[in-house]
Structures are given as C-alpha cells and as structure tokens.
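Handout, section B. The chain below has 189 residues.
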Amino acid sequence: MRVVACFLSLLCVCVAEESCSYQLPDDFKTACGLLNLKVTSASGHTLVDDSNCDQLFSKAEFSTKPEIKYTAANTGKQYSLVMVDPDAPNHKEGQYWLHWIIANIKGSDLKDGNISSGDQVIGYHPPGPPKGTGEHRYIFLLFEQHHTNIQLTKPETRPRFPLAKWISEQEGLFCHLVAGIQFRAQFEE
C-alpha cells in the first residue's frame, strides 16, 4: 500500500495501480488551495478562480448553470464534479446541501469549459441561502475518475448530504481530487 499526498487533509490511499480509495474529512469546509478550477457565471460577468476564491458574489450571477473549466485536465481521462453548501441551516457538522453532481466529463471538454459531455447524477440547483442565515460557501470539487463511464451512487436527497460518507461509498471510482474552488453568496430580496 502506498499513500499519495493530497490537499487540505484529504487522505488518498492507493492500494494498487488498479484501484484507489478516498477519504474526505467530515468537517471539510474549504476548496481554497485546491487550485486551477474556474467557474464562470452563465452571463459571463463573474469568474471565480484562484485569485478570488471565497469572495462574496451575487447569487443571481449563478441562478443558471455556470461554465466549469479546468485547463490542466488530461484529455484521455474523465472527471466528476460535486458542488455543495456547508453552511445550510439545520445541518450537522459534515452535512451539506447538495447542489450538483456530474460524472464522466471528458478531459478534452473540461479544458474548453464544456461539461455537457458529462452525465448529470444530480442536476444543478442554484445558490439560495435563506433569509437570516448569513453568507454561504458554495464549494466545487473536481475528481479525476479511475475509469471512464462510471456509475456514481445517486444521493437520496439534497439536504443533509454526507459528502465524506458518499465519497467513501464510491469505492475505487475516484482516483484524485484534482481541483476545487468556492465562492460565497447571501440572501437577496
């Protein structure tokens, strides 16, 4: 067994060249430091990248599905994207509001910001922080898949999504957490 170093306390354990297993800390809260993922609002007015990770933006900018771009993508690989909110009210530590999961995004498409080749596991749900709950973080995590055309387990609900548990249940499907980014949004009338 060999251990591969990862970002921000993520533990990646590769058992052999053919299989990988991931463990994400239950209290995972930030994607700042997981470099190179770019999220552009559908209007094109807002770009979230390494230079402005965790900044506050209008939720209206992300009311429709944004463009996701990862210029370091390997054209021969496929990727999965997960978007979550760790600040949803009435959620325990380690639970998130699930906003989006896409699997099987072709690396060649991801380089160009076109993720339509991917399979929607859970469709896009825009940021919608309730009144009186302050700023919410919207975290995007990009995983390199171990194989092409994988079948991810579809979560039963969006609220109280146990991200770390779900990732561990995808045993052998993800091989690397390669990038991430996040922004903040708050309630707006």
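Note. Residues 37-186 form a domain with the Phosphatidylethanolamine-binding Protein fold (CATH 3.90.280.10). Compare this with the example in section A.
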